Amino acid sequence: MERYNLIVVGAGPAGLSAAIESAKRGMSVMVFDENHKPGGQLFKQIHKFFGSKEHKAKIRGFNIGTELLKEASDAGVQVKLNATVIGIFENKEVTVNHDGAVHHYKADSVIIATGAAENMVPFEGWTLPGVIGAGAAQTMMNLHGVKPGKKIFMLGSGNVGLVVSFQLLQAGCEVVALVDAAPRIGGYGVHAAKVARTGVPFYLGYTIKKVIGTEKVEGVIIGKVDEHFKIIPGTEIELDVDTVCVAVGLSPMSQLLKMSGCKMEDNPRRGGQVPIVDEYGETSVPCLFAAGDVSGIEEASSAMIKGRMAGLRAAYKLGFTEEKVMTETETVYAKDLDSLRQGMFAPANRGKLIEKTDEGIPTSMNLLTKGFVAEDEIERYPGVTHQKGIHPVIECTQNIPCNPCQDACKKNCIKIGSCITALPVVTPDNCGCTGCGMCVASCSGQAIFLVHEDFEPGFTSITLPYEFLPLPEKGTVGKALSRSGEALCDAEIVGVRSAGAFDHTHLLTMKVPNEYGYKARFWRLEK
């Protein structure tokens, strides 16, 4: 029987972070993962992360995964793949199925970081081929290069539904509709806005009645729901789709923790059946920890910090780090974690309607119900200014934990302050913007545009983030789309910029008549 100071179950963001933190302090660490590749969900996440530079903000998920794997290797962490942990017993004995046999291991401490599984909802036709989880669609696209379908229906408006909808568009799929039974969008407004401006319609307060088809998905019927979430007769709409993606939340994969005998609770705010843990992730069983989504559904940035905290505490309890070092490091991690849990999307606000920002600005109700900020709402936010010359216009309208734009601007045109959930403010009256575009490329929510109201007589130029291929050439004429995806006018591409520092976010500059300078937010080549 092999022995280790620490066994980690799960090689995702939380598990790898925990393993790194422990191994750096001299512990022998083994990580088991049932998949054939380590990294968990990170390698499916091609979007840029939110947060600050301490949270790996503006770095794409798969690059964060690569960094963690290298860090783990450098620290001496052992990772065994295609290894399914099937039991945890007394005295930290772990049984693992790999290489066609069951093997037994012993550890002084164990960290469970098994993550979460996608939820499903039953409806007529939900077992037909073509009905898949949004995470499965993400795996098909971003790991295997396979389109899940041609015409996609997305159920769920949380961050997963919004992010995967955008990635489906990037893969060349048509997202026919994004539907949610809730009356308001559940995810970040910037994610919804970048989907809406491509022309995807949102149906809030609707749900699936049935999937059409006998051997595969051939369409879907949706209907408006009442206050009891029952479909109102006569409100049905039929949509022509070939794939249904379901993004209705996640449930912690806590089976191993239940087996271990630690105290559990049914906590809807944390995602369901979760272990009762202290602030460091330790369960009621000494030296048994839970980290990441298995202890409560949060973003991957939070999972990595919780993993670090669990790994550090395990090292301290086994005598591999001094109390002073542990206390100082935990204070930093706790501060970082707290900063990610502030703002409108703080765990305490889950499910609540936040009517004003922290600055006292009325929330855009149009954004919450239709996916985009209305024209009569947008100018109330401090990132939206009118100036001479080129300058940033920031359509970030919710208090979310993110501040890369502040760091990106070398001219200090953009200010957020020490609280990373504060709304970005653009310096008024000739901010000194050079038009470098770093703020546009660094924005994880693709909510920053460079506007030049005096580009040419009668024309305004708009530089926008663009992550679609093929890139248009300079001189190409297409359509400028509004925040709602409505075609506004012809728009000529007058600039295309790509740079290593932009990390695959290309900058398109289009010119439009002046009256559309604060309305046009996307460009499309007409078929």
TrEMBL record:
The lineage's top-level taxon is Bacteria
Q: Which InterPro entries match?
A: 4Fe4S_Fe-S-bd, FAD/NAD-bd_sf, FAD/NAD-binding_dom, Metab_Enz_Cyan_OpOx_G3PDH
For whether the record's keyword set contains Oxidoreductase, the answer is yes
The species this protein was found in: Treponema bryantii
* A GO molecular-function descriptor: oxidoreductase activity
> SUPFAM superfamilies from the xrefs?
4Fe-4S ferredoxins, FAD/NAD(P)-binding domain
Protein name, as recorded:
Thioredoxin reductase
Q: Does the keyword Oxidoreductase apply?
A: yes
